[in-house]
Amino acid sequence: xxxxxxxxVAAAGRIVAVPRILEVVCRSTGLGFAAxxxxxxxxxIACAVRDEIGFGLEPGGELQVETTLCNEIRASGQRVxxxxxxxxxxxxEHHTPRRYGFQSYIAVPIYRPDRRFFxxxxxxDPRPIRLNTPETIGMFELFADLIGFHLDAQERLxxxxxxxxxxxxxxELREQFIAVLGHDxxxxxxxxxxxxxxxxxxxxxxxVSQAAGLIQGSATRMAGIINNVLDFARGRLGGxxxxxxxxxxxxxxxxxxxxxxLQAVWPDRVIRTELSLQAPxxxxxARIAQLFSNLLANALTHGDPxxxxxxxxxxxxxxxxxxxxxxxxxxxxxxxxxxxxxxSREESxxxxxxxxxxxxxxxxxxxxxxxxxxxVASSVEExxxxxxxxxxxx
Length: 394
Known about the structure:
Helix 8 packs across helix 9 and helix 10 packs antiparallel against helix 12. This protein has twelve helices and 13 strands. The longest helix has 33 residues. The termini are far apart. By secondary structure, the protein is an alpha+beta fold. The protein is elongated. The relative contact order is 0.08. It folds into three domains: 134 residues, GAF domain (Beta-Lactamase, 2-Layer Sandwich); 77 residues, Helix Hairpins (Orthogonal Bundle); 145 residues, 2-Layer Sandwich (Heat Shock Protein 90), CATH 3.30.565.10.
């Protein structure tokens, strides 16, 4: 494999959203095999794979490009959708279904924003499956656009870094690029969220509705990551996070809303809440809700899935305290020292659950901007994050 082609395959494999995309594709359609493939005139290479039917192809594996339908998609630029090969007059005698033994197939082209062809997002199954619906096709095309956007972003970032010789200037431009990237990601993410809501409203059965809920949950998680990236960039470029502190009576409902949103993403988890705000809290409520969301998401991600997550919030004349606790393996001491640093991740994170490592950093910056503190204590009994803020003077 040439160096440039190998780099392109690796770039697609590094996109953190791709494994979840392939999972959603399989769950929402019932197809047993899904892949992102780099397709050229003479190569078909799997960049990422989800295989539930024993197809036998792994990331980096190749198929003879002339034996695939993706080769025809590369030439035409048009998607291919087959619900039942045996009943399809165009493909019932085609060599590709015979060779690979599938009855249902869907593939859409992946283009970078400048319309350079990369490959395909494709899926197959040995059973006939209904695929030719606006919801399914729309979902595939949205995911293909998102992958193309990520590839272009990686390419632009690599090119920018190669051109920057001054280390300090390179760091500044990199953070500016992150801010732009986070902003531009909102458009495709909004499209994905809208599609998932439409799927939920028009879902013909519980399976599709469940898959749409999974998409919505993933979109919520991605939105949180984008917000953290934007805040990280703003904080580094502007000297810290800005807050506007007022005595907001809506703080308690905002905290309850955070619980409700994350409970929807983790419907099988138990979240126990005890809110007792006896005195007004002078704070930036939106920022406190963001801090809380990051702490709660962290607890749900890294805590024992069989154990509850406990939330306590109280305010009095002395100040405001918010704590989030979960059961599970204690955080190693060597990890605790750098837990609130940017791009730090807990070693206990399960594969696929790790984000960018900005959530706790952003939470600590929000605490600092309020003149408060964010601490963590971790033992075999529980891991507890505690935010404390003294009452405003006057």
